[in-house]
Amino acid sequence: MPVVFVAACKLPTPFAEFTMHGFLEKATGREHVVLSLGDVADGAPVLGRVHSECLTGDALFSQRCDCGSQLEAAMQAIAREGRGVLLYLRQEGRGIGLLNKVRAYELQDGGADTVEANERLGFAADQRDYGICLPMLEHMGVKSLRLMTNNPRKVKALTDMGITVAERVPLHTGHNPHNKLYLATKANKLGHMMGSQHQNEADPA
Ligand SMILES: Nc1nc2c(ncn2[C@@H]2O[C@H](COP(=O)(O)OP(=O)(O)OP(=O)(O)O)[C@@H](O)[C@H]2O)c(=O)[nH]1
Ligand SMILES: [Zn+2]
């Protein structure tokens, strides 16, 4: 098993009281969590989000990206449905780590886009590995996901490792003047499906 389950606890949030399940990835020592709500082990497709850590967006309110807004919208959507899972994966900066992301942002401040900056630092555009998702979902008893994402490569990566993605649910939120180019580059170079409307389809409120 590449990840081991460690413990679970209650996690009250403004949206709902989730259960937080902690996992240790043995090869890297990284600590990951899954938030769950309701009965996710009944076999029916589960509304889910596989969210990659973004300290700047998720915790520090950065407007350079759309991560914080997507995290909030996903938790709200799960709360509204009363059932779902959110995998919070500690693969900061698409897998290059926080300090390398700061280096990449520095290059972006000088004119590079998000892909060029990674490449100039000697990294691939996206270094993430979703291999730990399967054992985490198996632990949760989740058989099939309705996955909230705009990234078809994420859907393919999960499908290729044997996770059933019954549906892709778009998550269009967090557009602002600071991340216009960033979102355009994701659409043009990374294949993200950004949609035309500046609203969150998982959270149409
Ligand atoms: N290297 C790098 N990583 C970034 C940058 N901006 C955001 N990230 C990281 O990108 C990850 C989120 O990936 P995104 O490409 O925004 O979105 P996604 O997860 O592929 O797709 P969605 O499911 O639609 O959100 C997080 O780990 C962020 O820390 C950047 O400019 N450079
Ligand atoms: Zn981000």
From TrEMBL:
The GO terms this record gives for MF are: GTP binding; GTP cyclohydrolase II activity; zinc ion binding
Instruction: Determine if Transmembrane is one of this entry's keywords.
Output: no
Q: Which domain of life is it from?
A: Bacteria
Q: What keywords is this UniProt entry annotated with?
A: GTP-binding, Hydrolase, Metal-binding, Nucleotide-binding, Riboflavin biosynthesis, Zinc
Q: Which residues are noted in the entry as GTP-binding?
A: 49-53, 70, 92-94, 114, 149, 154
Q: Which GO terms describe its cellular component?
A: cytosol
Q: Where does Zn(2+) bind?
A: 54, 65, 67
Q: What class of enzyme is it?
A: hydrolase
This entry's comment on the bound cofactor is: Binds 1 zinc ion per subunit.
Residues the record marks as active site: 126 (proton acceptor), 128 (nucleophile)
Pathway per its UniProt entry is:
Cofactor biosynthesis; riboflavin biosynthesis; 5-amino-6-(D-ribitylamino)uracil from GTP: step 1/4
Q: Which GO terms describe its biological process?
A: riboflavin biosynthetic process
Outline the extent of the GTP cyclohydrolase II domain: 7-170
NCBIfam families reported in the protein's UniProt record: PRK00393.1, ribA
The protein's job, in short, is: Catalyzes the conversion of GTP to 2,5-diamino-6-ribosylamino-4(3H)-pyrimidinone 5'-phosphate (DARP), formate and pyrophosphate.
Q: Which family does it belong to?
A: Belongs to the GTP cyclohydrolase II family.
> What name goes with this protein?
GTP cyclohydrolase-2
Q: What taxonomic ancestry is recorded?
A: Bacteria, Pseudomonadati, Pseudomonadota, Gammaproteobacteria, Pseudomonadales
